[in-house]
Design a protein that fits this description.
With 372 residues, the protein is an alpha/beta fold. It folds into 2 domains: 208 residues, Rossmann fold (3-Layer(aba) Sandwich), CATH 3.40.50.300; 158 residues, Zinc Finger, Delta Prime, domain 3 (Up-down Bundle), CATH 1.20.272. The chain has a 5-stranded parallel β-sheet, with helices on both faces. The longest helix is centred in the last third of the chain and has 28 residues. It binds zinc ion.
Length: 372
């Protein structure tokens, strides 16, 4: 992870970069943020920055040998401790971070903003209670007793230290207070109240704020290919919580698909009573949701248009594909173009505060007419 890949939060980044520039990196820092904040991503970016061989004002270079290792989370001087539970394959004393390193690295690459639920599903922990066991504190001490292999700093990232078994927490108090030379602890916590005060008092707190709506929107559109209207709606609902934003964008996709499928079915059947009711329902949704539904409709129309002449190049997957397949059998390019034009106009009217009820009802009637 690099600072430049995390949207926003410039103030925190500058503070962290300056501390390193002035050789004032506290040896034990607590990256404190609410669930859904990018506190883990920030710690990962900081670890990369600390050992980067060509640091810039903005952060790590991203291309030196150290950065390349950090991007795969295999740098020999960056260690990880995180909550785990037993699985079908890993039990007893083996239930420590090291047994799950392979999964952990892949998890970080795929979900740098992942939360505990995502992690637990990822390594196969299901709903079992996770923790950071007593055994883990011995590993921490062992890992840190060696000199740094190649980096300037040895970095120990402890994700969610609130899950430390009390004896594990007590086990690292001494090394946390007096770590070996050039050793940096980055504790990444969502809940400082669940930490032992003896741990808290030994760390410097770095508050990591939630993302701004604008940052969430950018993450969804730039890195996850979500269309602008939907990203805007999700960002609005997510309240800065990036995990929630990812969950919502998945759900919203499913919701929109269901609504769209039912809506088109009514248009085909020319069920006018139901179409009137639908217009009422859509009227009751907020404006962002209305725009997101229209945007979704346009996407499906586009997919269907591509799908009709060249089934093999269709880009949709899973559930949508099946739907596009059915939809394509009753549609042709001419009809789709006409409907797409109307949907675009409806989007324009909603944007300019036309009555949603009238806009959707009019759109439904015209679609019913075109389909026939
Ligand atoms: Zn670098």
């Amino acid at each position: 992870m690099l600072f430049s890949k995390i949207h926003g939060l410039d103030e925190v980044k500058t503070r962290l970069v300056n501390a390193a520039k002035n050789d004032q990196v506290a040896h034990a820092q607590l990256f404190l943020g609410k669930p859904g904040s990018p506190n883990l991503a920030m710690a990962l970016a900081y670890a990369a920055f600390l050992n980067c061989e060509n640091r810039t004002e903005e952060g790590a270079c991203g291309s030196c040998p150290s950065c390349l290792k950090n991007q795969k989370y295999v740098h020999p001087d960056v260690h990880f401790v995180f909550p785990v539970s037993s699985t079908k394959k890993v039990t007893g004393k083996d239930v420590v971070s090291n047994s799950f390193l392979k999964e952990w690295r892949q998890f970080l690459i795929e979900n740098p903003y992942g939360d505990l639920n995502t992690w637990s599903g990822y390594y196969g922990g299901e709903d079992k209670q996770v923790n950071i066991s007593k055994e883990e504190s011995r590993q921490i001490i062992k890992n840190l007793s060696l000199k740094a292999f190649e980096g300037k700093y040895k970095v120990m990232i402890v994700w969610l230290p609130e899950f430390m078994h009390p004896s594990a927490a007590n086990g690292i108090l001494k090394i946390l207070e007096e770590p070996p030379e050039s050793t940096i602890f980055l504790l990444v916590s969502n809940d400082s109240e669940r930490l032992l005060t003896t741990i808290l008092s030994r760390t410097q707190i770095v508050n990591i704020p939630m993302f701004a709506d604008e940052d969430i929107r950018n993450i969804l559109t730039n890195s996850h290919g979500i269309d602008a209207g939907k990203a805007e709606e999700v960002a609005h609902l997510a309240d800065g919580d990036i995990s929630k934003a990812f969950r919502l964008s998945n759900n919203l996709e499913d919701d929109n698909q269901q609504i769209f499928a039912d809506w088109m079915r009514d248009c085909f059947k020319r069920d006018f009573a139901s179409l009137v009711k639908r217009a009422d329902t859509y009227h009751g949704m907020n404006k962002l949701a209305q725009k997101s539904l229209l945007q979704f409709t346009l996407n499906i129309l586009r997919e269907t248009l591509v799908y009709i002449p060249a089934r093999e190049v269709a880009r949709t997957g899973g559930k949508i594909n099946e739907f596009v397949d059915k939809f394509s059998k009753v549609m042709d390019a001419n009809k789709i173009e006409k409907i797409a034009k109307l949907v675009n106009e409806a989007h324009y009217h909603i944007e300019r505060n036309a009555s949603p009820k009238m806009t959707f009802l009019d759109l439904s009637l015209q679609i019913a007419r075109i389909i026939k």
